[in-house]
Write a structure and sequence with these properties.
The structure is a single chain. The chain is α+β, with helices and mostly antiparallel strands. About 20% of the residues lie in helices and about 35% in strands.
Length: about 150
């Protein structure tokens, strides 16, 4: 049975035996709540969450975009994966770098904002696409490379 967290959120359907879970353990949530995207879930029970915020530059009367990246505890009952949109809440320090816990999965995000492909990768991908359209294969490319070496 999931206990009440004090927030207006749905409790997870699965149960876990994690002591650091706000629903099935003894962790209390009493501070700030943010919504972000999971950019890494490689560590056990830890996810890296990123969200974008806007900061005003009063001199120019404009806004700049800044990104915040934090480590959050990922309970077994929630089990958020990469590119999931999640809601995290601040709690007591759980480890040296973790002060947040994931409390709800909101869905998937197709593309993480703020992260673009490198320009070199885009050029290689576009070259491969044009070769596919023209019907060229890797062996055709090797043959043309050999011919150019023989001529030169």
């Amino acid at each position: 049975m999931a206990r009440k967290t004090g927030l207006d959120i749905n409790s997870p359907k699965t149960e876990c035996k994690d002591k650091k879970c706000p629903f099935h353990g003894d962790l209390t949530i009493s501070k700030r709540v943010f919504t972000g995207v999971v950019v890494s879930d490689l560590a056990k029970n830890t996810a890296t969450v990123l969200w974008e915020r806007r900061r005003k530059i009063s001199k120019y009367d404009r806004y700049e975009r800044r990104k915040t990246r934090v480590h959050a505890h990922n309970p077994e009952c929630i089990n958020a994966k990469k590119k999931d949109v999640v809601r995290i809440a601040e709690c007591r320090p759980l480890s040296k770098t973790k002060n947040f816990v994931i409390i709800e999965k909101l869905g998937k995000e197709e593309k993480v904002s703020g992260f673009e492909e490198k320009p070199e990768e885009k050029k290689e991908d576009s070259a491969k696409e044009t070769d596919k359209k023209q019907g060229k294969t890797d062996t055709d490319k090797k043959d043309t490379a050999k011919k150019t070496k023989q001529k030169g």
